[in-house]
Amino acid sequence: MSVEIVSNLERKVSFNVSKAAVDANVQAQLKKYAKDAKVQGFRPGKAPKHIVEQMYGGKAYQDSLNEQLNKQFVDQIVEHKLNIVGYPKFDLTSSEGEDFVFAATFEVMPEVKLGDLSAKEIEKPACTLTEKDIETTIEILRKQRATHIVSDEAAANGDKVTVDFVGTVDGVEFEGGKAENYPFVLGQGWMLVDFEKGVEGLKAGESKEVEVKFPEEYHAENLKGKTAVFNITVKEVSKQQLPELNAEFIQSIGVAAGTEEGLRAEIKENLQREVDRRIKNKARDNALQALSEVSPLDVPSAMVHDEIHHMMHNAEENMKQQGYKADQIKLTHEMFEKDAKNM
């Protein structure tokens, strides 16, 4: 049968499914159910055939029909050499006579026609490592292994604080706006900026009311753009203590020699490897971007849909790692649609 072009990427094909073939396959499907059928008074797999038919006849027929349906559809795809995307939508258009007639609607991969790049300028990025980059990396490594010592001093950037807080909007408490003995490190972006600024300067045992403005793009719909008042009590302030840059510390991060010279050499090698990788990827991305600009391409909606779900899943997992509860995560397809189409 011929393939109908519905739109640029959408196709429709009609085909028959023999009712006799479906009926002939029902018994094979019933045998599968019979192996595990649990019928009172009989051991698994030993129930009489007529009882199995009564219990599973409908399911067996549907399984048989689906098997024949998919087989005939695949035959059509192979015959017409179609490169489909996603899963087709099947519609039963006729059940008269000896055959079922189905119509399958689906998308195909677009035909790629490369444009002319001769007039395009493609930037090749460059980056030179400096001693400052090495120093920054060393500081990051020290901070990753920092300890915190309880202090009577006021909280400052980099300190670990433990707080109790209760938040209200228009005088009413809201879900997720209350916690006790909640720890976080000032300056690491765990809390909203206004919240962290309100905690800075407080000592253990001190309290303060702080106005916090939620951003318009905040994940909780009921808090977007709202201003909340948080009553914050600092329970504990701990000052960051960085490890000394000595042999013990250097060996703890995998540099066997334990010397600062060896540490710097290894950091430089690792950074250079990462820089080279990123430059290569950026140059490739720039070339692909230029190519896409001269080679317009329709993206199948099924691919966009799959990419949206992939991006939503990643965003959800990242938010969970940041401490968000499942009921606080409110993601929609619209949030990711534009980025998914540009992937």
Task: Name a few traits of the molecule.
343 residues, alpha+beta, Alpha-Beta Plaits, Chitinase A, domain 3, 3 domains, five-stranded antiparallel beta sheet, four-stranded antiparallel beta sheet, 8 helices
Folded structure, characterized:
- The chain is of the alpha+beta class and 343 residues long.
- The chain folds into three domains: 3-108, 2-Layer Sandwich (Alpha-Beta Plaits); 147-241, Chitinase A, domain 3; 247-341, no CATH class.
- It contains eight helices and nine strands.
- The strands form two sheets. Strands 5, 6, 7, 8 and 9 form a five-stranded antiparallel β-sheet that branches. A four-stranded antiparallel β-sheet has the order 1-2-4-3, with helices on both faces.
- Helix 1 packs across helix 2.
- The protein is extended, with a radius of gyration of 32 Å.
- The two termini are 35 Å apart.
Short synopsis of the structure:
By secondary structure, the chain is α+β, with helices and mostly antiparallel strands.
